[in-house]
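Milestone 3.1: sequence recovery, worked example.
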């Protein structure tokens, strides 16, 4: 490579783009030592004013709080509308990065509980395995259902699915797995039961029906509530899609589930600040916001330009965007037609689902019985309702762990919720909470701890968060409500194959680049490229790609 420094453009400043810059800095230092700053120059381009992809943190107004002294003060709370929690037991890279930049102390334990319910109240179940403070009613606890036989069977079914992950193809679906478990429970589940030390009566004539209950009451609702499923229901999904997610988000022994204190955007802004801080020993990183750029790739050359006449050449471009956005942004010259066809086939295999995340007080979204309200509330649908999406409702007071926050865990303080829905009309407008846009209403302590992007909106007015720019023009009243519009790739067989294909493509390009050939300097590192797009998986992809590029792996 003759270019000094090598100019790298990263498109997208969500967790994939920011972590890509982080690992390029880190691996650059490992390879070039004190000369790293002369070898590498990194620029991130973000189309929005804020960082963080689907992350957004808002402050909402819940009314006036009456204090013991008889004084009324505004009761203002924050809420995450996008990314909201992680499992530090399995998020090893994330924990290491947070520790390095001094952010780990801002990850706080949440109340990790779930409820499963039918809208009419026929079924009300709670999973309180990790409940640390609060009350678990035996009348609803999964531990007591079916004389205590259902909960251990759930563990066995779960372990058996995890044990299959390395030996199945994407064509093996969730429905196929459960059909097999119902038809031949001993063959499918005995090894997992032995592994867990759980005794199952394989001769019990009710066992197959019990497995069907595990499927219908627990796994179908849980899987269909995930952000990477579509409206067709969970049955046609590859088994590896949800269970790879479970392995990371809920695995590793007892999970250490943590939420981002004062919002996930705050952590991403801390990472960005670490990247751009002045340090002559490491490769420089510049972040350009409000930069809606286009990319043209020619043999050995990459050019970025915008609609206002700006353009610049780079030695390498890394797309840390959604696959469909990459198709819109990137143009390959006619001389690269075979590569263009290869990429179009890969990127075109990735489908997307779009959802709304809304902060509100519509308790009708929650179970009829308030005693089973949990952090995560998942509706059970009738088996025939396969074409209607399941959605999930969070109790924010529990997710932000009010029992550990005495200032908030007080009798009479209103409950508020964040719901993932496919239709904004699912939440009555009068129940949607307003964003607080006046910084003067916040205490200095709260204002200082909020993400910069949240504070900026209070100063400059509402920014277009998520993918709101794709929606028709909104009226001002709705624009001020606490909601966002975001998208995520559907993790189906086509997407899993696309992930494997893009890995091979990246390996080919990185190898050529290390050899000094760089025939087409374009790589991909968006959340769609690895698993379910969890933050840990985004970091995994960024670390792998950085090592491939710099020859440290």
């Amino acid at each position: 490579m003759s270019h000094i420094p090598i100019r790298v453009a990263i498109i997208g400043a969500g967790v994939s783009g920011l972590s890509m810059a982080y690992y390029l800095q880190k691996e650059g230092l490992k390879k070039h030592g004190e000369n790293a700053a002369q070898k590498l120059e990194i620029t991130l381009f973000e189309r929005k004013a804020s960082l963080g992809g689907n992350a957004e943190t808002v402050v909402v107004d819940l009314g006036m709080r009456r204090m013991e002294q008889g004084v009324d003060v505004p009761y203002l709370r924050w809420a995450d509308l996008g990314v909201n929690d992680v499992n530090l037991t399995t998020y090893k890279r994330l924990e290491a990065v947070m520790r390095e930049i001094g952010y780990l102390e801002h990850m706080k334990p949440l109340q990790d509980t779930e409820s499963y319910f039918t809208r009419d109240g026929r079924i009300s179940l709670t999973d309180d395995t990790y409940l640390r403070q609060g009350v678990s009613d035996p009348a609803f606890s999964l531990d007591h259902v079916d004389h205590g036989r259902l909960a251990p069977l759930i563990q066995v079914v779960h372990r058996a699915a995890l044990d299959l992950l390395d030996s199945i193809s994407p064509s093996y679906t969730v429905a196929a797995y459960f059909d097999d478990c119902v038809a031949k429970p001993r063959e499918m589940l005995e090894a997992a039961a032995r592994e867990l030390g759980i005794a199952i009566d394989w001769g019990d004539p009710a066992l197959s029906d019990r497995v069907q209950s595990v499927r219908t009451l627990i796994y179908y609702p849980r899987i269909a509530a995930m952000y990477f499923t579509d409206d067709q229901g969970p049955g046609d999904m590859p088994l590896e899609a949800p269970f790879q997610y479970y392995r990371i988000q809920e695995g590793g022994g007892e999970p250490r589930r943590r939420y981002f204190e004062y919002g996930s955007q705050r952590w991403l802004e801390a990472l960005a600040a670490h990247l751009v801080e002045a340090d002559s020993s490491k490769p420089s990183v510049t972040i350009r916001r409000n930069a809606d750029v286009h990319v043209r790739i020619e043999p050995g050359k990459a050019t970025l330009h915008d609609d206002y006449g700006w353009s610049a050449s780079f030695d390498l471009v890394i797309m840390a965007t959604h696959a469909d956005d990459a198709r819109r942004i990137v143009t390959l010259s006619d001389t690269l037609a075979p590569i263009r066809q290869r990429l179009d086939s890969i990127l075109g295999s990735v489908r997307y689902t779009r959802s709304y995340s809304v902060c509100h007080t519509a308790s009708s979204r929650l179970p009829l019985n308030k005693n089973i309200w949990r952090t995560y509330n998942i509706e059970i649908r009738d088996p025939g309702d396969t074409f209607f999406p399941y959605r999930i409702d969070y109790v924010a007071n529990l997710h932000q762990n009010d029992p550990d926050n005495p200032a908030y865990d007080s009798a009479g303080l209103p409950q508020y919720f964040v719901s993932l829905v496919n239709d904004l009309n699912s939440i009555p407008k009068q129940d949607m909470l307003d964003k607080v846009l006046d910084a003067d209403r916040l205490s200095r302590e709260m204002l200082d701890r909020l993400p910069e992007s949240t504070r900026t909106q209070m100063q400059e007015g509402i920014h277009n968060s998520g993918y709101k720019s794709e929606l028709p023009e909104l009226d001002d009243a709705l624009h001020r409500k606490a909601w966002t519009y975001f998208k995520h790739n559907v993790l189906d067989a086509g997407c899993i194959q696309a992930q494997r294909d893009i890995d091979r493509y990246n390996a080919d390009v990185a190898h050529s680049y290390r050899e000094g050939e760089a025939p087409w300097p374009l790589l991909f590192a968006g959340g769609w490229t690895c698993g379910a797009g969890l933050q840990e998986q985004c970091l995994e992809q960024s670390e792998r790609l950085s090592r491939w590029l710099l020859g440290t792996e």
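DSSP finds 17 helices and 21 strands in the chain. The radius of gyration is 24 Å.
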